[in-house]
Each structure stands twice: as C-alpha cells, then as structure tokens.
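sanity check this record:
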Amino acid sequence: MKKFALLALLLTLGTVAGRAQESRQDVSISGSGIIEPFVSSSTDVKVSAKRGLGALFSYRFMLTPRGAVEANYSYTQNSIRYRAPAYDYQVGTRMQEATGAYVYNFNFHNFNPFVEAGGGALLWGNIRNLSTTTLDVKNQTTIVGLYGAGVAYEISPSFDIRAEYRGFFSKVPNFGDSPLTTNKYYNIYNPVIGVAYHF
C-alpha cells in the first residue's frame, strides 16, 4: 500500500511539473509611456503633444514553442496641442488601446527576445478640464497598425521581466472638429516595461 501511495504521489508531482514546463499562457502588466511626434500638415495645422504615462495589460497564448497571439489593452493620459494661424488649442486626452498581435519569440538562455506585429484601434477620449481649451472636441476612434520588439528575462519558471519598444501607425486625431484636421498619419512611440506571469 505504501508503494502504491508513493507511486501515485510521484505520478502527481511529475504531471504537475510537466504542466509547469508546458505553460502556454501568460498575463503581463507594464508601465508605459506615449511619445507623439510633431506633425506639420498641408492644412496649416501644427500638432505637438506632451509625453504621457499609463499602463498596459497583455494576454499571450502560445500556439507553438516560438509563436504566440497577444491581446492588449492600455490606458494613457496626455495632452495634444493644435496650432494654426487662427487658433491655438490644447486637448487633454485619455487614450485607450485595444489591439491584437502575432508574437515571434527567440530563446537564448534566460533571455527571450521577441518581435510582434498586429493591429487594432486607439480610442481617443477628451478630458474636459483646464488642459482642454476648446469645447468643440468629441471622442474619436482611429484604426492603427502595431509593431514592436523587446526582450523578456526569465527570473523563475513562472515570472519574467519584459522591456519592449512598441509603435502605433495612426491617423492624427482631430476629435471630430474639422479645423483640427491634418490629413496626416504619424508614428506614436510606446516604450513599456513590466512583469509577466506564466501559467
């Protein structure tokens, strides 16, 4: 009976250890920054923005040992300034990201570099406070392309630290206010660093 109990215990531990090594999912939380470049348009509108800070939440599911799909949600606040000969407006913004991407991983000891590409939407909300100097703005959604590269450092079988550069290719928002239209696209820089849990 003792041999049978020992065998059952060893089989259970072996199964749990095997499952731990085959973790195919992870969730991560990261601090993020948003850096929007200066845009000068053919409509005489010049757009600049303050740097923003926020958070990124991601979920990855491994399809193969190297390939994964990822779903992302982020929230960031900053302010965007629109200047033209007739006005100088500032819009306080809350930007939310809803994207998906394919992630390809490389393995090198405890370091796991990766690249990703995908798409989704940015939801631009205006904040009605002292940083918003025009009341004609409305919420807006832009379709975006997402790309990125980073590295994950494994600190244990269940946790890793991730640092990544991400970028969004998006139309410059006008918040539904035609005088703010630039008819331009720009590249938004999004550096992130955080921690992931594998299960």
About this structure: The domain at 24-198 is CATH 2.40.160.20 (Porin). The chain has one domain: 24-198. The radius of gyration is 22 Å.
